[in-house]
UniProtKB/TrEMBL annotation, chain B:
Region span, Disordered: 1-52
Coiled-coil annotated residue ranges, if any: none
Segments of skewed composition (Low complexity): 1-14, 29-40
Species name: Brassica carinata
Gene3D superfamilies: Phosphatidylinositol 3-kinase Catalytic Subunit, Chain A, domain 1
Family note: Belongs to the Aux/IAA family.
GO cellular component, one term: nucleus
Subcellular location: Nucleus
Recorded superkingdom: Eukaryota
Name this protein carries in UniProt: Auxin-responsive protein
Length: 585, 158
C-alpha cells in the first residue's frame, strides 16, 4: 500500500487553497499533488497570454470555470505599443469553446477581442455568467449584442475603458425580455446614446443588479428615472452631470439619490457642476469608493464633498483638489486605503494648480490605512519622500509620477535617490513601485537591495548607465515585471543578467540604448525567452550596433508566437542566426 | 489667470549639472531623451505623462472650458421637418469628418457640409450670435467654441 494520501483527501484539502500562487507551489511538490491540484483548479489566471499555449491550459484544468488573461504589456496603456502588435483572444476562446464548455467567466485585459470572439463565447458556453473586458479593443456593439441576447445566465457584463466600434445603442435592447440575472453592467466606455426606454425596462427587470455604470451620453435629466428603478444599487457610475435641470427635476433627483441606501461606490460624474454637489450629500456618509477623475470640480467644492465622506477607502481625483483639499482628506477620510491624483494639465503647459508634494505628505500623515498611491505632481523633494516613508511604512503600491523629466529635488537640486531609498527601506511590503524625477544609478542600487517583495517596477527618464539595470536585475528578489522607457542603457546589464529574465514575467524597454546585436545574442542564449524587437520604422539594414526602438522580453513555454506582425522581429525571423536549442512546445 | 507655476520641462535648469558630459555616442540618445517619444501611428498621440487615452481626452475638453470656450458640448440636432430632435456631445468627435459620419449614421442618410442641392442633406449650425451658418468654414476648435445647435436641411427641391 503506498503512502500517498488518497485522491479524495487531497482534493478536499486543496479545495481550501484559493490563491493561484499557492496552487502553483502545491503543483510542484510531486506528481500526485500536481495531478490532484490540476483537477481541482477552478479559477485559472494567465498573466501573459503568450507564456503558454491555450491548448495546454485547456487540457491541464478540466474543471476550469473562470479564465483570466492578460495580453499587451502595461505600457500599451500609454500608446507605447504600436497597433497590431498582438494579444489576440481568439485562439484562447476557440480552445476553451472546444474543450471547456462549462466555462462561466472570462476576464481579459489589454487584448484584441473581435465580434467573432464574442459570438463564439455566446454560442459555446451554456452557463456563461461573467464577461469583463479591460482596456480591450477590436470589437463592436454587435458583439456585445450577441452576448446580451444569447447568454441567458449572464450576471456580469463589464466593458472597462475599452475601445469599441460603437455602432449605436441598440445592443441594450438585446437582453432577454424576461427577468435577467444581471448583477453588474458597465458600458461607461461607449460613446453613443442608448435608448432611455430600453434602459428603464432593463433595470425594471433586473432585480439583482448591484452595479451600474452608465456612459457619458446618459444625461442628467434621465438619471432620476433610472435610479427609481434600481434603488438597490451598490455601485453607480453616472453619465454626464452637467445638464441644466429645473428646480422640480433637481428635487426629484435629490430624492432618488437619497433612496440609494446601499450605495457604496460612485463614479462617472462627467463635468460635475458645482451647484449639483449638494445632491450627493446624502450618499457621502456611506461611500467607500469615489471616482472623481472626470469631475472637473475645483478645490472648495471638493472639500465640501469630501469632508462628508468619513468612510471613504478609495479616492480617485484630479489635482484640482490641491494641497488644501488633500489636507481635508487627511482630516476627514481616516479609512482611506487608496489615493490616485491625476494631472489636469496633461500637456505640462497648464500647471496652475497648487498641488505639491505637501498634499501627499498630509495624506500620509493623516490616513493610517493608506497603502496604495498614484500621484502626479510637477516636482518633488527628498524630504517629502522621507516623511511619507516614515509616516506610512505600510505602502504596498507607490507610484509617483514627477511630470517634469529629470526634475531634481527642487529645494536642494539633488537627485531623488535618497527619497526613494527611504521608501524602499521602510515600506517592507512594497509590491509595486513607479519612480520618476532625477535619479542616478545609486537609487537603483537601493531598490535592488531593499525592495525584497517588489513585483512590479516602472521607470522613465532615469539613471546614468548600465549599472542601474544591473542593480535591479541582480537584486529585487521578487521582481516579476519591469518596464523602462527613455533610460540610457543597456546591452551589458541585459546580457549579464539574462538568467534573471526567466524568473520574471516580462521586461519592457523602449527608447533605451539596447542594440540589435544584443537582442540577437540574448535570443540565442535564452531559448525559453521570447525576445521581441518592436520597431515601427526598422532600418533597411540592421547592423548589430544599431539601437532598437523597443524590446519586449518574456518567458514562455509556448515557443515563438506565430502571429507577429511585420514590425516585430524575433530570432526566428532570422534563421541564419540560429538558436542554441529549439524550444519545445 | 496668472500662471506662476509654469515649467518648461525641457529647460536646461532641470538637468543635473554634476552629471558627466555626454560622450559623442550618447549625444543622439540624450537628444532623444529631451523629448518624450511619440508613437507616430496615432494622430495627436502623446505618451507622457503616462495617463490613459480616455482621461487625456477628458482633459482636452476641460482645457477648452477653462479657456472660457463654449461650456455646453452637448448640442441639440434637428432634421428639418422632424419635430423631435437628438442630442449630441461634440467633444467626442475629432473633427468635421467624424461628426458627419456620426450624423449620417444617426439619421440614416448622407449628411454633408457645403452648398444646398437637390440630393444631399446639408449640415448647418446656429452660432452664439444666433445666426444660422454653414458647417465647415471655420477650424474645428473654433467651431466648438461657437456652436449652439445643429440643423440638417432637407435636399432642395426645384
Amino acid at each position: 500500500m503506498d503512502r500517498r494520501f488518497p485522491f479524495k483527501v487531497l482534493e478536499h484539502i486543496f479545495s481550501f487553497v484559493d490563491s493561484n500562487e499557492d496552487r502553483n507551489s502545491v503543483s510542484l511538490v510531486c506528481k500526485s499533488w500536481f495531478e490532484t491540484e490540476r483537477r481541482t483548479r477552478k479559477r485559472v489566471f494567465v498573466g501573459n497570454c503568450y507564456a503558454v499555449s491555450p491548448l495546454k491550459v485547456a487540457r491541464r484544468f478540466p474543471k476550469m470555470r473562470s479564465l483570466t488573461l492578460k495580453g499587451k504589456p502595461h505600457f500599451a496603456d500609454y500608446n507605447l505599443v504600436p497597433d497590431g502588435w498582438g494579444g489576440y483572444a481568439w485562439p484562447w476562446i476557440e480552445a476553451m469553446a472546444a474543450r471547456r464548455p462549462f466555462l462561466e467567466e472570462i476576464r481579459l485585459k489589454r487584448m484584441v477581442v473581435t465580434d467573432e470572439c464574442l459570438e463564439k463565447i455566446a454560442a459555446s458556453f451554456r452557463d456563461f455568467k461573467t464577461l469583463v473586458l479591460t482596456s480591450c479593443e477590436g470589437f463592436s456593439t454587435d458583439g456585445i449584442a450577441a452576448i446580451a441576447s444569447t447568454c441567458r445566465k449572464l450576471r456580469d457584463l463589464e466593458l472597462r475603458e475599452c475601445i469599441v466600434d460603437d455602432l449605436g445603442g441598440d445592443w441594450l435592447s438585446y437582453f432577454p425580455e424576461t427577468s435577467t440575472s444581471l448583477v453588474s453592467l458597465d458600458f461607461s466606455c461607449l460613446d453613443s446614446e442608448v435608448k432611455l426606454s430600453d434602459l428603464e425596462r432593463l433595470l425594471s427587470r433586473s432585480p439583482n443588479l448591484k452595479s451600474l455604470k452608465l456612459n457619458r451620453s446618459v444625461t442628467l435629466d434621465v438619471l432620476e428615472s433610472l435610479l427609481r428603478r434600481a434603488p438597490q444599487l451598490v455601485e453607480l457610475g453616472t453619465g454626464s452631470f452637467s445638464d441644466e435641470l429645473d428646480p422640480e427635476e433637481i428635487a426629484k433627483l435629490t430624492k432618488a439619490l437619497s433612496e440609494l441606501k446601499q450605495l457604496k461606490s460612485l463614479s462617472g460624474l462627467w463635468d460635475l457642476l458645482p451647484e449639483y454637489i449638494p445632491l450627493l450629500y446624502s450618499l457621502c456618509p456611506r461611500l467607500t469608493s469615489l471616482n472623481l477623475s472626470y469631475a472637473t470640480v475645483q478645490m472648495p467644492d471638493l472639500i465640501d464633498l469630501l469632508s462628508r465622506c468619513s468612510k471613504l477607502q478609495k479616492l480617485w481625483v484630479m489635482d484640482l483638489i490641491e494641497d488644501k483639499g488633500l489636507k481635508t482628506v487627511a482630516l476627514c477620510c481616516k479609512e482611506l486605503r487608496e489615493l490616485r491624483v491625476f494631472p489636469s494639465g496633461a500637456d505640462l503647459d497648464e500647471t496652475d494648480v497648487t498641488l505639491t508634494e505637501q498634499g501627499l505628505v498630509s495624506v500620509s500623515e493623516g490616513c493610517p490605512k493608506l497603502e496604495s498611491v498614484l500621484y502626479f505632481c510637477v516636482q518633488f523633494t527628498n524630504a517629502a519622500l522621507v516623511s511619507i516613508a516614515k509616516n506610512r511604512p505600510n505602502f504596498r503600491c507607490f507610484r509617483l509620477c514627477v511630470m517634469e523629466p529629470f526634475a531634481p529635488d527642487y529645494r536642494t537640486q539633488q537627485p531623488l535617490d535618497e527619497g526613494f531609498k527611504a521608501i524602499v527601506e521602510r515600506c517592507k511590503d512594497l509590491r509595486r513601485l513607479s519612480v520618476s524625477g532625477l535619479l542616478t544609478d545609486k537609487a537603483f542600487e537601493y531598490i535592488g537591495v531593499h525592495a525584497k517583495k517588489l513585483r512590479m517596477l516602472s521607470i522613465a527618464f532615469a539613471g546614468d548607465s548600465d549599472l542601474m539595470l544591473h542593480h535591479l536585475l541582480s537584486g529585487c528578489q521578487s521582481l516579476k515585471k519591469l518596464e523602462i522607457r527613455d533610460c540610457p542603457f543597456g546591452d551589458t546589464a541585459l546580457l549579464e543578467n539574462a538568467a534573471k529574465l526567466e524568473t520574471m514575467r516580462s521586461l519592457w524597454m523602449s527608447s533605451c540604448f539596447v542594440s540589435f546585436g544584443a537582442c540577437k545574442q540574448l535570443s540565442q542564449k535564452m531559448p525559453r525567452l521570447n525576445v521581441e524587437v518592436i520597431d515601427e520604422h526598422p532600418p533597411k539594414t540592421r547592423p548589430d550596433s544599431s539601437p532598437v526602438e523597443r524590446i519586449y522580453i518574456y518567458r514562455t513555454v509556448a515557443g515563438p508566437r506565430l502571429d507577429t506582425p511585420e514590425f516585430v522581429w524575433t530570432i526566428h525571423k532570422s534563421p541564419e542566426v540560429g538558436v542554441s536549442r529549439l524550444s519545445i512546445r | 489667470m496668472e500662471n506662476s507655476n509654469s515649467y518648461s520641462p525641457y529647460s536646461s535648469s532641470s538637468v543635473d549639472s554634476t552629471k558627466p558630459l555626454p560622450s559623442e555616442s550618447s549625444v543622439n540618445l540624450s537628444l532623444s531623451l529631451t523629448f518624450p517619444s511619440t508613437s507616430s501611428q496615432r494622430e495627436t498621440s502623446q505618451d507622457w505623462p503616462p495617463i490613459k487615452p480616455r482621461l487625456r481626452d477628458t482633459l482636452k475638453s476641460l482645457r477648452l472650458r477653462q479657456r472660457g470656450y463654449n461650456t455646453a458640448l452637448f448640442v441639440k440636432v434637428y432634421m428639418e421637418g422632424v419635430p423631435i430632435g437628438r442630442k449630441l456631445d461634440l467633444s467626442t468627435f475629432s473633427g468635421y469628418e467624424s461628426l458627419l459620419e456620426n450624423l449620417s449614421g444617426m439619421f440614416d442618410t448622407s449628411v454633408i457640409c457645403g452648398t444646398r442641392d437637390s440630393k444631399h442633406h446639408v449640415l448647418t449650425y446656429q452660432d452664439k450670435d444666433g445666426d444660422w451658418m454653414m458647417v465647415g468654414d471655420i477650424p474645428w476648435d473654433m467651431f466648438l467654441e461657437t456652436v449652439r445647435r445643429l440643423k440638417i436641411t432637407r435636399p432642395e427641391r426645384c
